[in-house]
TrEMBL record:
<feature type="transmembrane region" description="Helical">
    <location>
        <begin position="213"/>
        <end position="233"/>
    </location>
</feature>
<feature type="transmembrane region" description="Helical">
    <location>
        <begin position="245"/>
        <end position="262"/>
    </location>
</feature>
<feature type="transmembrane region" description="Helical">
    <location>
        <begin position="43"/>
        <end position="62"/>
    </location>
</feature>
<comment type="similarity">
    <text>Belongs to the 4-toluene sulfonate uptake permease (TSUP) (TC 2.A.102) family.</text>
</comment>
<keyword id="KW-0472">Membrane</keyword>
<feature type="transmembrane region" description="Helical">
    <location>
        <begin position="186"/>
        <end position="206"/>
    </location>
</feature>
<keyword id="KW-1133">Transmembrane helix</keyword>
<feature type="transmembrane region" description="Helical">
    <location>
        <begin position="7"/>
        <end position="37"/>
    </location>
</feature>
<keyword id="KW-1003">Cell membrane</keyword>
<protein>
    <recommendedName>
        <fullName>Probable membrane transporter protein</fullName>
    </recommendedName>
</protein>
<feature type="transmembrane region" description="Helical">
    <location>
        <begin position="74"/>
        <end position="93"/>
    </location>
</feature>
<dbReference type="Pfam" id="PF01925">
    <property type="entry name" value="TauE"/>
</dbReference>
<feature type="transmembrane region" description="Helical">
    <location>
        <begin position="151"/>
        <end position="174"/>
    </location>
</feature>
<dbReference type="InterPro" id="IPR051598">
    <property type="entry name" value="TSUP/Inactive_protease-like"/>
</dbReference>
<dbReference type="GO" id="GO:0005886">
    <property type="term" value="C:plasma membrane"/>
</dbReference>
<feature type="transmembrane region" description="Helical">
    <location>
        <begin position="113"/>
        <end position="131"/>
    </location>
</feature>
<keyword id="KW-0812">Transmembrane</keyword>
Length: 265
C-alpha cells in the first residue's frame, strides 16, 4: 500500500467522523478525495460517494436512534420524494449529460467540470445559510404541510442526484430552518434521508457503471469506523458550534473545488 492509498483510507476515516458529528458533509469530503487524491473520474467518484455515505449513514442512523435523536416520521416524509428524484437523476439524467456542455473560444466546460462546479455552488449556498448568525429557532408544535415537504424533498433529491451527494449538507439546514427541528435532532434525522437517498441513487449507478467492489467495500468499512467515533464525540459538542463548524468546513471545500476546477483544467 503506497502513501496515496494510506491517505485515501485516512480520508475515509475522516468522512465517517464528519458524518457522525454533523449528519452530513461526507460527500463534501468523499468526492474531492476520490477525484483529487485518488484520481477517480468525477462520475465514478460521485457514484462511489453514494455507496460510502449511504452505508456509513446507516450505521450512524442506528447509533443516533438509540440516543433518541432521530425524528423517523419527518425523515421518511422527506425521503420518499427525495429518493425517487435521486434514482431518476442517477439512472437517466447524469448518463445523458453531454461530455462537452459548452465551449467558448479555447475554453471548454466538460461534463466532469460542470458536475464539480455545480457541486461547489450548492456547497457554497448551504455553507452561507449555516454560518449566518440567527436567533435560536423555536420548534413549532405544528407539522409542516406535507406538500411542502414533498416539494422540498423533490428539489433537494434532484440536486443531490446530480452531484452524487447523500444530501446531508442540504438536509440538515432544511430540517432546522423548514421543519423546525433542533440542530442535534436534525443531524440524526438527516442520516435516515441520506441513507435511503444514497443507496437508492447508487442502484441507478450500478446499472450504468463498472464498480471496483474490493476498493469500495474497504473504503466504506474504514468510513464506518469513523462514524462510530464521530457519533461518540458529538455528545460533547454544542449544537451552535456544530452548526458553525459545519458551515465553515463546507465553505472551505467549496472554494477549494472552484479553485481546482478553474485553474487546473
Amino acid at each position: 500500500m503506497d502513501n496515496i492509498q494510506i491517505l485515501g483510507y485516512l480520508g475515509a476515516l475522516i468522512v465517517g467522523l464528519v458524518l457522525g458529528l454533523i449528519g452530513g458533509g461526507g460527500s463534501i469530503l468523499t468526492v474531492p478525495l476520490l477525484v483529487y487524491l485518488l484520481g477517480f473520474n468525477p462520475i465514478i467518484a460521485t457514484a462511489y460517494s453514494l455507496f460510502v455515505v449511504g452505508s456509513t449513514s446507516l450505521v450512524g442512523t442506528i447509533q443516533k436512534y438509540k440516543k433518541g435523536l432521530v425524528d423517523v416520521k419527518t425523515g421518511l416524509a422527506f425521503s420518499f420524494p427525495s429518493f425517487v428524484a435521486v434514482y431518476l437523476s442517477r439512472r437517466y439524467l447524469v448518463p445523458n449529460i453531454p461530455n462537452t456542455i459548452f465551449s467558448f473560444g479555447d475554453y471548454i466546460l466538460t461534463k466532469e467540470m460542470g458536475i464539480m462546479i455545480f457541486f461547489s455552488i450548492i456547497m457554497l449556498i448551504s455553507s452561507i445559510s449555516m454560518i449566518k448568525n440567527k436567533k435560536e429557532i423555536n420548534v413549532s408544535k405544528e407539522n409542516q404541510a406535507y406538500y411542502k415537504t414533498f416539494i422540498q424533498g423533490l428539489i433537494i433529491g434532484t440536486i443531490t442526484g446530480l452531484i452524487g451527494a447523500g444530501g446531508g449538507f442540504l438536509y440538515v439546514p432544511a430540517l432546522v430552518l423548514w421543519a423546525n427541528i433542533p440542530m442535534k435532532r436534525a443531524v440524526g434525522t438527516s442520516l435516515i434521508i441520506v441513507t435511503i437517498n444514497s443507496l437508492i441513487g447508487f442502484i441507478g449507478d450500478v446499472q450504468t457503471l463498472e464498480i471496483d467492489w474490493a476498493f469500495l467495500i474497504a473504503f466504506t468499512i474504514t468510513s464506518i469506523i469513523g462514524i462510530l467515533i464521530g457519533v461518540y464525540l458529538s455528545k460533547f459538542i454544542s449544537s451552535k458550534k456544530l452548526k458553525k463548524s459545519f458551515g465553515v468546513f463546507t465553505l472551505i471545500m467549496a472554494i477549494y473545488i472552484v479553485y481546482r476546477e478553474t485553474n487546473l483544467k
